[in-house]
TrEMBL record:
Residues 19-285 form the Histone deacetylase domain. It comes from Algoriphagus aquatilis. Belongs to the histone deacetylase family. InterPro entries: HDAC_classIV (IPR044150), HDACs (IPR000286), His_deacetylse_dom (IPR023801), His_deacetylse_dom_sf (IPR037138), Ureohydrolase_dom_sf (IPR023696). Transmembrane segments: none annotated. Keywords: Hydrolase. It holds the Pfam family Hist_deacetyl. The keyword Cell division does not apply. SUPFAM superfamilies: Arginase/deacetylase. This is Histone deacetylase.
Length: 300
């Protein structure tokens, strides 16, 4: 059975006019139920991740400042969110959701988190709407509990996964792959194991051709037994922050390529949603919903 992490706290309210579309975390589950892709039993409310697993990924001093709400004004500004206890608890629960979705993936082949993909969180700071790196926390949890040996992170958000790259820069058991807009945020890129920067305006055919080539190249260098897929939809032409020119159909083909590859190499996959900032919320929901439909079609 497809299991999806979701909690009402994912929709933590932000000030009016904030550009991060928190409402998608409420609307996406409703859309998936409405169209019959899932039923209530597909969802589970995740438990907050134990602090020891956060400290296994992030610096102690940073975690203590975050939990005591002692970040400086500049540190808070870098995250893009007004800091609050509710926001910190949300991030901790999101990380728990990704870990638990990964455990379901080990059982069923795939597991999903309606939120997550917080790839801009570094070992010692947050950035870009990310406070804790759920991708890294999940990866470390799986490896250190000896549930898997090698993890491939496929990050296809339009923004480079700079925090994830920093956290695993010296790892031989984790391969970080980020394909993103070259001229987009973050302006100072970190070094992933493989970075592919795309020019502004990249369309479906060019994007998919590069992705297929690079995924094949990765498998010639690295043999994962687990995949974490950050499937942000800010690659859409309609995205206000993305600067690429993909269509909804192109995003569908992208997601199908990644999930099909995971099945072919028999590597369980955990999908986390990442970004999406189109002007019309319908575009965001439609693009996100496709990966859940694919999961049902390909795995169940």
């Amino acid at each position: 059975m497809l299991k999806i992490a979701w909690s009402p706290t994912y929709s933590h309210p932000l000030p009016v006019g904030h550009r991060f579309p928190m409402e998608k975390y409420l609307l996406l589950p409703d859309q998936l139920r409405y169209e019959g892709t899932v039923v209530d039993s597909n969802f589970f409310e995740p438990k907050p991740i134990d602090t020891k697993w956060i400290l296994n990924t992030h610096d102690t001093f940073y975690v203590e400042k975050l939990q005591s709400l002692q970040l400086s004004k500049s540190e808070i500004r870098a995250t893009g969110f007004p800091l609050s206890q509710e926001l910190v608890e949300r991030e901790i629960q999101i990380a728990g959701g990704s870990v638990q979705a990964a455990l379901f993936a080990l059982e069923f082949g795939i597991g999903m988190n309606i939120a997550g993909g917080t790839h801009h969180a570094f070992s010692n700071r947050g950035e870009g709407f990310c406070l804790l790196n759920d991708i890294a926390i999940t990866t470390n949890y799986l490896i250190q509990n000896q549930l898997v040996k090698k993890v491939l992170v496929v990050d296809l958000d339009v923004h480079q996964g700079n925090g994830t790259a920093e956290l695993f820069q010296d790892s031989v058991d984790v391969f970080t792959f980020s394909m993103h807009g070259e001229k987009n945020y973050p302006h100072r890129k970190e070094t992933s194991h493989l970075d592919i920067g795309l020019p502004d305006g990249t369309e479906d055919n060019a994007y998919l051709k590069v992705l297929e080539k690079e995924l094949n190249n990765i498998l010639n260098r690295f043999s994962p037994d687990f995949i974490i897929y950050q499937c942000g939809v800010d690659v859409l032409d309609s995205d206000q922050l993305g600067r690429l020119s993909m269509t909804i159909d192109g995003v569908y083909k992208r997601d199908k390529m990644v999930l099909t590859l995971a099945r072919e190499i028999k590597a369980p996959v955990m999908c986390c949603m990442g970004g999406g900032y189109s002007k019309h919320i319908k575009d965001i929901i439609d693009a996100h919903a496709q990966v859940y439909r694919l999961a049902q079609d390909l795995y169940f």
